[in-house]
Amino acid sequence: MALKIVKGSIDRMFDKNLQDLVRGIRNHKEDEAKYISTCIDEIKQELKQDNIAVKANAVCKLTYLQMLGYDVSWAAFNIVEVMSSSKFTYKRIGYLAASQCFHESTDVIMLTTNQIRKDLSSPNQYDTGVALTGLSCFVTPDLARDLANDIMTLMSHTKPYIRKKAVLIMYKVFLKYPESLRPAFPRLKEKLEDPDPGVQSAAVNVICELARRNPKNYLSLAPLFFKLMTSSTNNWVLIKIIKLFGALTPLEPRLGKKLIEPLTNLIHRIYLFFSQILHHLSAITLVCFSWLIAFLFFITVLISLSSGMPNHSASIQLCVQKLRILIEDSDQNLKYLGLLAMSKILKTHPKSVQSHKDLILQCLDDKDESIRLRALDLLYGMVSKKNLMEIVKKLMLHVDKAEGTTYRDELLTKIIDICSQSNYQYITNFEWYISILVELTRLEGTRHGHLIASQMLDVAIRVKAIRVFAVAQMATLLDNAHMLTGNTQRNGICEVLYAAAWICGEFSEHLENPMETLEAMLRPKVATLPGHIQAVYVQNAAKLFATVLKSQEGNTDSTTAQEASQLMIDRLPLFVQSANLEVQERASCILQLVKYIQKLQQKDVEVSEEVCALFAGELNPVAPKAQKKVPIPDGLDLDAWINEPPSESESEDEQPKAIFSKEEPKHSRPRHTEVDEKELARRREARKQEQANNPFYIKASPSSQKVYQETPGVEHIPVVQIDLSVPLKVPGLPMSDQYVKLEEERRQKERAEKKKKDKKKRKEKRSGRGKKHDSGPESEEDITPAHMVDIVTEEMPENALPSDDDERDPADPHKALDIDLDKPLADSEKLPVRSHRAAEVLKSPAEDEEGENVSSLEPKKKSSKEKREKKKDKDKDRKVKMLFESGLSETWERRLISVMLTFIFLFYSFDRKAYDIQGNLQDGSQVVVSVIFENKCDSFLKSMEFNVLDSLNSKLQRPEGSGPHDSLTIPFQLPPGVSNEARFVFTVQSIIMPQKLKGTLTFIVKNEESSTHEKLDFKLHFTCTSYLITTPCYSDAFAKLLESGDLKSSSIRLEGVNMPFHHLLARICFHHHFSVVERIDSCASMYSRSIQGHHVCLLVKISSQTVSVDAKCDEPTLLGNVLDEIKQTFSQC
Amino acid sequence: APMNLFMRMSLTTHSFLSSFHSHLCFVISSFQMQFMLLFSRQGKLRLQKWYVPLSDKEKKKITRELVQTVLARKPKMCSFLEWRDLKIVYKRYASLYFCCATEGQDNELITLEIIHRYVELLDKYFGSVCELDIIFNFEKAYFILDEFLLGGEAQETSKKNVLKAIEQADLLQEVRGLTILIGCARELFGGFTP
């Protein structure tokens, strides 16, 4: 028996560990899969053993195999087992495996909740750390809900290592469980002022990330960030905050004004630094990362500031020059980053970048696609009316040269983007644009045919003046359709024919030779086109036919009209046989129509008018959002039922009864309103189909275009490239270049004419004026469009509602985080807290059965009692909350324990005794805080521990040997209803400013059934007054002091003080530790001294409810703060 | 043969730059990293860390496509590329490619800096790290990464702190196998205690 165990152990020693596995895989290159499958079998054996070390080893190997792409989801439960090992070694491996293998749909995650909670509260910070790290990878909504409170507690952990992790992971928790945001936010906000820079930056990170998505909810934080910005020395925190302000300023313009000053200081600081090193900027030194980051950060700051400040164009200019050096560098990374930074500057200072057009065009020739794409992006922002043609011409050259289809497609979309941006703002000559579009159709195998087509349609419909030209071009395109379709039937470019056919049909009155086009549209080859295009062909052939008939109207010779009818009758049967239903239907309908028309023609009946009536009326472009913007008429409630809602099934069961009673005729009402969901969906689908196929449905919304691009069918079809040595030209088409030339000539002519006019004017004015300088290079406004282009704007319904445009993706998880954070927390919003069932778990089943009767009754009683208690305590609650300022209400509103504690900060005063005893300490550096702890609940409180987060200035004195974050044990316990006082000594360095210290009190609440650990956060407010000690002073010494001239003076006025003068003095004496030196009628002099020996003298006068206080002190800051505090005392009464 | 990852890296800094470092230390800024991949020149995955929930199938697809795209790029090309909606930042150290995906707009350099810092951390931890170190101690490489990044955000900007945390955690971890050995010894020799 013993031998067997030993044998087992020795076997285990020879188990493969991870290294062996890796080595084995490397040695079995030929039959890797086979080797691994044997390994997996071994691992399965190992997982069956009880020894946790063996299991951990197996799980470690599985993690490796998972990375190689093998499915290990079957071992999820074993991973959980290893996670729950008490040894850190195995726990670490378990969590690693979990973070690599688990995802939201892993069902065993449910089992881990308690384990993770246990690890989170482990005394070992590395256990906690490992659990947090793992959790960040596989947190699910359930886990987030269950653990939110635990993680929130960890945000105030004593170790910054844990606080930092907890703060960061909170972000993931918010995403998964948005309800946790409001309860956790106050604490997150606190962390912005955490003494540890790592925690602070984590908090800034999280809040900035949240605020970036929903800036308006974080406006109230602006003052806090403002303070951080002016006080922080951590530059990266600065970067973040500046970015955050960038998001906030558009919402609150006042912020911008406020920001200018500190930002100016900042930029001057940075600028001074940079002016020293900017001239060192050469390619060699720039290779350093930190340098580059700094430089690019500089640019970012500069840009974020430049909107508020006018005088930075010089530094921007300098930056652009330096960026040019970057872009010209041979290092591709520098080039890329230079271009990227350039595009940032372009947004605010387009002029300073535009002069570097040459460089950017040069970058288009780069071998690296990333760089070419960046350059394209820049070009997009650089176009103007003046250079659009030139830039597009260059781009067209690149289209010809481009090798990969992806890049060529990118170029194509960019050209169209550039031209169509801001409603064709930069296009002066639409003939040129149409010819560019036609030239683009030469691209074989592009998947953006649809894009070109939609542009053609858009321009033809919206620019009325261009229709004649467009129709002519489209007719040529149709005539040369065979060139486009090539031999690949499903070529993306044939989409263009869709547009061409529709334009020719709709605007057929502009066609020179409709008969020819009609013939082109009915060629047999058309039948090879995709169905939706054929359908458009057929429909528009009918339109053309109508036009032909109309043109022949009144003509005595009716042969042309009859020829047209014959052509239709000959060719349409081909389409009637189409497999595509739409084509078939339209074709057979039209065929019958034409046959009827032919009969009438033979009887010499005029039909053209009737036929034209079929296609009468003009189509106007409608804005994509028009439907949504139709205002709802007054008195129309869309959510209200038009008819009574159909009764529920239950009442239907009763219906037979009701039928007999005449009182309820309602039930017999027919159910008009019930709309079948399926039916609705079907109709919607049908409508979509119809719209897609309907040429009259203009201007598809951008999203539908995207959908098209993503359609797999088009994208993944291998495209056969035709290698043509001669660039393919559609015969008879004018080249865009021609238009460039024409446009140049036109502009020159215009300019010349203008000059002439100017001269004339000048001649007339010469007598009066001296010299008037030449107008120089023409400016943007000087270029007038070639012909009056009337861009029809898209139609909007009357009284369209100005709706916000930022429609967000409903799937965006950040949408759920759009939560108002300033509203006070409601009861229902507390985070779910684990109820304390530890005691129950320990109970043996027998006991449980015994106690069942009792326990089933008890909770009810208790809860009602608790409720009463809670109500009673509510008022107290409020008071306490005000005392603490910390909004951790969930601590208070826990249902199970209503612990009430009052802290009363009796006084913070300088303690002579302490000073005397520790005389070797610095003078006046100590303050004693006395706290009264009062237990207001029904439970016993024990193990109280008091802790304060030290600031640089003030520190809690702790016993020797304890660390700076350790808490002090309070040396007493509190039975219910008892209070006691404890004193804490603080060391203070500077006393001239008031200060707040954050702290926590932890304690154990013990009652019969259970004991729980609780925590209370509070803030200690060290006012400047608390640093003053009542010191008597004689009037002659007082007079001397005032005469000495060392004191700075300051004064305040208190209005509406409604109390006797001696009360007023008593108040100042009591609240602010002053003593009266002398009092004459309604005038008194007062004196106090700070613990560091500052003299504070007051002269208080009262006259009809107005009190003036003139004060002198040798420390103006201290004086100002003391006076503020006095003012506050009187404003409260 | 093991290859030093730093073979191609020069870590020289100018004197005024080092003063700059202490003066204006530009530490890593926040960003939402989507995932990080380490793969060899042959396209073998060495480490993967995903900060976005994706199914295994999607992960495999992305990895395959991305590895192909990155390996197809010529050595002198820049370290950045736009791929799908993501910005990919990669860098090659000796035989290993370090590749990160972010969704941000202006984090290229910072991502590059993160990669670099991670490599430096590996180098410090393993002592002139090579690809084999990462292959054979892949769990250590993960532990270091986890101390450095959390949920796609940089959690610790000080290299010293990261290494300290790792070392202390390592101290907690006993030498694996030792317990097993002791267990055996105990069973063989009866009352033996170490």
TrEMBL record, chain A:
Residues 792-809 have a biased composition (Acidic residues). Residues 654-690, 740-755, 810-840 have a biased composition (Basic and acidic residues). It comes from the Eukaryota. Pfam families: Adaptin_N, AP3D1, Mu_AP3. Keywords: Acetylation, Coiled coil, Cytoplasm, Golgi apparatus, Membrane, Phosphoprotein, Protein transport, Repeat, Transmembrane, Transmembrane helix, Transport. Residues 675-822 form the AP-3 complex subunit delta domain. Belongs to the adaptor complexes large subunit family. Part of the AP-3 complex, an adaptor-related complex which is not clathrin-associated. The complex is associated with the Golgi region as well as more peripheral structures. It facilitates the budding of vesicles from the Golgi membrane and may be directly involved in trafficking to lysosomes. Involved in process of CD8+ T-cell and NK cell degranulation. In concert with the BLOC-1 complex, AP-3 is required to target cargos into vesicles assembled at cell bodies for delivery into neurites and nerve terminals. This is AP-3 complex subunit delta-1. It comes from Nothobranchius furzeri (Turquoise killifish). The gene is AP3D1.
Automatic annotation (TrEMBL), chain B:
Keywords: Coated pit, Cytoplasmic vesicle, Golgi apparatus, Membrane, Protein transport, Transport. The gene is LOC107396045. One of its GO terms (cellular component) is AP-1 adaptor complex. Belongs to the adaptor complexes small subunit family. Adaptor protein complex 1 (AP-1) is a heterotetramer composed of two large adaptins (gamma-type subunit AP1G1 and beta-type subunit AP1B1), a medium adaptin (mu-type subunit AP1M1 or AP1M2) and a small adaptin (sigma-type subunit AP1S1 or AP1S2 or AP1S3). Binds to MUC1. It is found in: Cytoplasmic vesicle membrane; Golgi apparatus; Membrane, Clathrin-coated pit. InterPro entries: AP1_sigma (IPR044733), AP_complex_ssu (IPR016635), AP_mu_sigma_su (IPR022775), Clathrin_sm-chain_CS (IPR000804), Longin-like_dom_sf (IPR011012). This is AP-1 complex subunit sigma-2. Pfam families: Clat_adaptor_s (PF01217). One of its GO terms (biological process) is intracellular protein transport. SUPFAM superfamilies: SNARE-like. Coiled coil: none annotated. GO terms for molecular function: clathrin adaptor activity. Residues 32-172 form the AP complex mu/sigma subunit domain.
